[in-house]
Amino acid sequence: MDTCAPTLVASVLPADFSELGQEVRRLEKAGVDRIQWDVMDGKFVPNLTFGPDVIRANRDAVSMGFEAHLMVDDPDPMLPRWVEAGCEIIIVHAEATRHLHRTLSAISDLGARPAVALNPSTPLEAVTHVLHLVDLLLVMTVNPGFGGQQYLAAMERKISAARAEIQERELDVAIEVDGGIAGQTIGAAARAGADVFCAGSALFTGAGTMEDRVTALRDAAVAGIEAR
Ligand code: DX5
């Protein structure tokens, strides 16, 4: 039975963008572990969100960590900007850069923690050659671009394969899932091998308070991890 403690990450995509400072403070008070900034460029994904100045403006509102999920084409030129904005983890998509090994090394050289994301149609094999360079692998459980989408259970095979590869190679790589993570899906993602869970809609809407929703998600993730 696995007993590692889950990490709960909040996506700010469903937040009230006119009150982002209050929203991140609300998330911290509710007990999430980290904030995910869903950065979108309107090219890699059909949506456009925010840049490093918006993240920087909210850095001092809370003390918890920030991760930048770069759903952008060619992320290399702006890598320093996300680190300067206060993001400790920089997630790039394997599909978005021509030289992934170089991009991940550049994130490390900036003193940040490198992470790589896979779209649903991208196989784990696309990143096995760089897993030793990252702290975290993000397995998308929706097609990126929008919140509130249906969880893709078919991704559980990829999550399990990633868990097996990481364990076989004795790598220290966390597996994050993002997209449709809610009370009825987080347990299956945890059982498959995820230990970091990014949720947006399930934190901002639903029964009870935000604190109640954080507790319910965390409890379901613990149960899923223990059931592996
Ligand atoms: C997709 C986004 C979403 C968001 C969370 O590009 O990255 O996955 O973080 O969305 P929901 O509302 O599904 O938790």
From TrEMBL:
Domain of life: Bacteria
One term under GO cellular component: cytoplasm
InterPro entries: Aldolase_TIM, Ribul_P_3_epim, Ribul_P_3_epim-like, RibuloseP-bd_barrel
Catalytic activity: D-ribulose 5-phosphate = D-xylulose 5-phosphate
Annotated positions binding a divalent metal cation: D38, H69, D178
Family: Belongs to the ribulose-phosphate 3-epimerase family.
Protein role: Catalyzes the reversible epimerization of D-ribulose 5-phosphate to D-xylulose 5-phosphate.
Protein's UniProt name: Ribulose-phosphate 3-epimerase
Native source organism of the sequence: Mycolicibacterium agri (Mycobacterium agri)
The organism's taxonomic lineage, starting at the top: Bacteria, Bacillati, Actinomycetota, Actinomycetes, Mycobacteriales
